[in-house]
């Protein structure tokens, strides 16, 4: 909460009042917009009040949103179940997906009499048809279940008709009156609001593009405009500024303020703990665990003033006081070499004559406005883009020797480079660890009970489906291994492990032995690799899981004080918290925690190149801090570092403060 109100000048500039503002929102005396009685509790439907912990427990001030007030819901995230993120729970409540229980039956009756949750709406209107939520933490494609989402359509391989629906079609569809009965946009003229919004949101030049081709920032802006065009009474935007470049953030913030002031529609925003609160917000619903407390921004400000200065500095800018041991001064071996790289879709040029070399030990911040081609450039590196094959000079890692699939490989020679078209995509997936919005959307959630352990274990092969399921496969080899002393303590825990560690292949050539010795040596090496993989999974989960950031919402028996990854005792076996997390179904986690698991997956195999595109999206301040510390790699032990000197990392973010490295430790590549 400390850095909640890092006021940001860009949010303080108030815009000239629009004509819509003439409704003079601030002077209106009307019924409350939202009303939750004091001391109310919120339960999942079907949960008996006495026996289950509530999802939310409101304080004695309850929650009343009056006309003219501007609210933000601010919360950390939990790890699932009752610990789900506060904004998520507020959304569920506002959409009527939960049961609100006032403290007494009299309070219940008074509340119902006064109009319930939305007193400002006439009783004849179903409130849930007038409330709209757009969340940017959730997945945007592939349905909600997790069937594989083919994102290659973005890169020019469109086949289905629905991939060709343009932005104009989609937005016009939103302006169709609900009573018209027609779903055709043909001949439909854009409204004044349509013109104004698309202009302000910088979408005008993109109207004829298929929506699947829009960049992340462009898509987010389009989703906001689409929701506004549907003319709800109340629009809740969850993390609306994530992934937007600075100019887009400024124009969106201004536009939201104008719309809210004109009540057309009323806007409420969801923010993660630690995010800037726009200056036009007047009130905050703060959700910590299950506790929901409504405050004015003034109150929050005076609470901040009471925090000792040293504590403030630590929370708002931990990067300034923790210099990293990472350096980029030495010339590491080349890992990526691209010269005169170009990407165009017909006449539309996205990348022109790009030259970039990435070396071992380097930490890069890839910068550029929304739509400048950052994701496209990364998709060339991962080999996902069809035009990666046609580049004249695009050299990528091609040897497995430095992918650290065995402990001894940590001292392996520099990786070999070769042209992308000679490197199989499956191999690239092992050699390049990735977290990106596209990958986040594509990662399957429906795989039967895929645990956090299994999700992380897919990082060794770079696939999406866990292989060698069950710990049984590990038990025997570990028990008979000559080198198992190195993993004593881990051994007991792995028998309860929640999945395998991927296929372990050992090349005959790699062993350099005669035929008779090969089989025996192969078996020994397989055991060694499996042991290393088990240990790596526990290491990344300990460093990036709830043991590093939890507010004890996950396992109540665990220590209630959150601790950072470097202050963790180096465990002889994983903590109870980490073990419990490893067994949790991946799909049950909130998006921020899922991203942390996918970060663990990208790092677990210690690939030579790691690409992190908007990896912080959905994480709260504690999670982000844990991840950044791990990436900075302050431990002296090479194995305990998030990334080593033999690896290169590229980070994409529009927020400078999200980059884990400082000053000269990080190189910048601007598109
Ligand atoms: N098939 C396509 N046809 C036309 N234009 C396309 C196609 N695919 C992508 N583009 C355009 O390429 C540009 C670059 O997109 P990209 O996703 O690489 O941007 P970005 O820099 O990652 O943006 P953001 O910061 O918003 O994520 C965008 O303007 C996008 O509309």
Automatic annotation (TrEMBL):
It comes from the Eukaryota. The keyword Transport applies. The keyword RNA-binding does not apply. Residues 396-408, 555-577 have a biased composition (Low complexity). Keywords: Transport. PANTHER family: OSMOPROTECTANT IMPORT ATP-BINDING PROTEIN OSMV. This is ABC transporter domain-containing protein.
